[in-house]
Design goal:
Shape: flat
Helix content: over 70%
Oligomer: single chain
Distance between the termini: 45 Å
Order of helices and strands: HHH
Number of domains: 1
Radius of gyration: 13 Å
Structural class: mainly alpha
Number of helices: 3
Number of strands: 0
Length: 75
């Protein structure tokens, strides 16, 4: 696995954080993509506890996407 993938995932994760600060719902979609990438990287390197953490983060980012979508319908 090249070193480009972790750096790309790092940049995508930071973009997700910036969008979250700006209260953009898209942040959760960005986080989900980055988290799935991190799961792959961690499994590839045998870091299973961290892969499990990113599985949870993926679930939380999906939950955030759903919850923020509900807010959009209420406004």
């Amino acid at each position: 696995m090249t070193t480009y993938l972790p750096w790309t995932l790092t940049a995508i994760s930071i973009l997700g954080a910036i969008l979250n600060i700006k209260k953009k719902r898209a942040s959760f979609a960005i986080y989900t993509m980055a988290n799935i990438g991190w799961i792959v990287v961690n499994i590839y390197h045998g870091i299973y506890a961290q892969a499990a953490l990113f599985v949870v983060f993926t679930g939380l980012s999906t939950w955030g996407w759903i919850e923020w979508g509900k807010r959009a319908w209420k406004d």
